[in-house]
Amino acid sequence: MKKKVLVLFGGRSSEHDVSVISAATVAKSIPEDRYEKILVGITKKGAWLLAPSVESMEDGSWKESRIHAVLSPETDRTLFLTEGDRIEKVTVDVAFPVLHGLWGEDGTVQGLFETAMLPYVGCGHLSGAITMDKFFTKVIADSVGVAQAAYVPVRSWELTDMDSVVARVEAAHDYPVFIKPSNAGSSMGITKAHDREELIAGLRLAAEHDSKILVEETIVGREIECAVYGHGDKTFASGVGEIVAAAEFYDFDAKYNNADSITDVNPVLPEGKEDEFRETAIRIYKACDCFGMARVDFFLEEGTNRVVFNEINTIPGHTSISMYPMLMAKVGHPMSEYVPDLIEMAYERH
Predict the structure, then answer these.
(1) Fewer CB within 10 Å: C terminus or N terminus of the chain?
(2) Which spans in 83-191 are helix H?
(3) Cβ atoms within 10 Å of 215's Cβ, excluding its own
(4) In what order do the strands lie in the sheet with 292-301?
(5) 122 confidence band (pLDDT: 50, 70, 90)
């Protein structure tokens, strides 16, 4: 009998559209001879809808579905499908969340799966929460001696005294600085400030995305990414890839809307640096209690060749330009192999 896999996509975060594309790619890599796919999309308003097909995900028509889905928190792993007065009960065997950003990648939906005793792909609720919150990721990185950009933490309510916040930032860093919401992904809400006016605008923008904000020193260097896979002593890291952004930095628009941004999975690096990236990626992956997969992002600092940790993504993108599947394929692990392996790994943990 085929195992029923609940593929959960979309979501309420600013990365909704990217999640839909990623999930369609993942769903195509789930072998139909072994698994029955149940595709459930979460709208931007939070409604859970049954998607009739991968094609409906690709053309957007899944949003017109009249079949609502409700995952029971009871331990019988039941998904209720409702349409009007009709209710159908489906027993789900495993969940595969392909949700980027808040309310999906941050441990919230993982907590629901754990309450329902439902095996699921990827990092646990604590790992998701830690890695989604850039501030706490930095605390973990500091604890294991991983180099990273210096930062000033700011709370959104502190912006009522903007002069005080600006003075604190300027005392710690020279311009330019990066302003980042602590909980966000795909570079949403991130800006680079070259002066006080831009700093104030950036703080206000970041506050629209989160109540916790980081103002970081600028690290000038190459943007390097590494795919990590597995768990415990079965963890391995791929080779590395380089992002050559078509903008001043790799923001959302440069990442998804500018064809001039380049992903290079064969970057030329100084001797020994690729191994250092891989070793550091595994160290931060394990320190954050990651499981299944994650993409770890770094800088190779200009002038010093210092490896500087940037952030970690526990549900990495799987679009046509996403680095994670490209790096995995390069080391002999295409999606057709690692996607079903991730599903089986979920049972291993359960």
Answers:
(1) N
(2) 108-115, 125-132, 134-143, 162-172
(3) 25
(4) 262-264, 236-244, 221-230, 292-301, 307-313
(5) very high
